[in-house]
Write a structure and sequence with these properties.
The complex is a heterodimer of chains A (277) and B (70). Chain A is of the alpha/beta class and 277 residues long. In chain A, helix 1 packs across helix 7 and helix 4 crosses helix 5. In chain A, helix 7 links the parallel strand 5 and strand 6. Chain A has a single domain, classed as Thiamin diphosphate (ThDP)-binding fold, Pyr/PP domains (Rossmann fold, 3-Layer(aba) Sandwich), CATH 3.40.50.970. In chain B, the strands form two sheets. Chain B has a two-stranded antiparallel ribbon with strand order 1-4. A two-stranded antiparallel sheet of chain B has the order 2-3.
Chain lengths: 277, 70
């Protein structure tokens, strides 16, 4: 199989703006899916609203498209009903951290077997360029015409402290790293988070004088450092950069495993047959 | 002669210029009307940098079959 077998070729081209690198993340995801030989019938992709939420609807898997911010909530339901399927969630930064912030931390706390991919493009693209909780300080947006003044979220630290058992960050310049973390996240049992730094040349770039898509990719390149390089930097220098790579990779008992155990105990005690299809 | 052929899906390509900037051999170019074209296909080294970076999955690099050995 090639990656073309995983896309709905008849609905292409992608709806994204020219130079939007959400497609690059999808491209990398498809390469990882192809390498792992994901079964299309046993994979559910859940996505919500927004640029990042709309992109996976072009993929030929079982795709569920739900209300804004609630992708993880619906994915939890899918996973509990069918623990045998692989559930993958694609979210934008506003989707995951602002509107669905609570669902995000609780999915991480429950350690449910979902692979969550957060595409961090630092802006609300589809709704017209409003600032997101990830917009860097000083960057301009339609709702921050004089520059953003609020500090932004560190998705990886948030997920790790909430209890996610796999946390990693990739970006669309260092594609080998993104490919590797995506592959490990797809193989992980438990809540796996991959934050992918992407670029939005139209809504973010045009307002911040980097509208050239290639320059936006270069901007991402300048923003990130690998873990090995970051160790040599001082704390102040580290705070300005995004560290890429794996942060957490542990194995703990997953929610559907706990649930199956609970059903087993109940079965023995009460002799009531509870079927799970 | 290049060992690789570069196929561009014209309907999917949005001429964003990412492949133009990141090809190590600079085989792509933008025309005056900002349309992406393959200029020097014979220089392709098959690194697949463009194929992996393309946000629209519009590029495919395939290895040409060696015809000299039958």
């Amino acid at each position: 199989m090639s990656i073309r077998d995983y896309v709905k070729e008849d609905v292409f081209p992608l709806f994204t703006c020219p130079g939007c690198t959400h497609g690059t993340v999808i491209n990398t995801f498809l390469r990882a899916a192809d390498e792992l030989k994901l079964d299309r019938d046993k994979t559910v992709i859940v996505c919500a609203i927004g640029c990042a939420g709309r992109t996976p609807t072009y993929l030929d898997f079982n795709v569920l498209r739900v209300t804004h911010g609630r992708a993880l909530a619906f994915a939890t339901g899918v996973k509990l009903a069918r623990p045998d399927v692989k559930v993958i969630v694609f979210m934008g930064d506003g989707d995951a951290l602002a509107i669905g912030g609570n669902h995000f931390i609780h999915a991480a706390r429950r350690n449910i077997g979902i692979t969550a991919v957060v595409l961090r493009n630092e802006i609300y693209g589809m709704t017209g360029g409003q600032y997101a909780p990830t917009t860097p300080v000083g960057a301009k947006a339609t709702t921050a015409p004089y520059g953003m003044i609020e500090p932004s979220f560190d998705t990886c630290k948030l997920a790790a402290s909430a209890g996610a058992t796999y946390v990693a960050r990739g970006d669309i310049f260092n594609l080998n790293n993104l490919y590797n973390v995506m592959k490990s996240a797809l193989q992980h049992k438990g809540f796996a988070l991959v934050e992918a730094l992407t670029s939005c040349p139209i809504q973010f770039g045009r307002r911040n004088k980097v509208s050239d898509p290639a320059k936006m990719v270069q901007r991402i390149k300048n923003m990130v450092v690998t873990k090995a390089v970051a160790e040599k930097l001082s704390t102040e220098e580290q705070a300005e950069k995004f560290i890429i790579g794996e942060f957490v990779n542990t194995r703990e008992i997953e929610l559907t495993e706990r649930y199956a155990k609970l059903l087993d105990i109940n079965k023995k005690e009460n002799e009531v047959v509870i079927t799970m299809s | 002669m290049s060992k690789y052929s570069v196929a561009v899906n014209g309907k999917w390509c949005k001429s964003c210029g990412i492949c133009v900037a990141y090809c190590p051999k600079k085989i792509f170019a933008l025309t005056a009307k900002k349309k992406m074209i393959v200029e020097q296909e014979e220089n392709c080294i098959g690194c697949k940098m463009c194929e992996n970076r393309c946000p629209d999955l519009a590029l495919t690099i395939t290895k040409k079959e060696d015809k000299t050995n039958g």
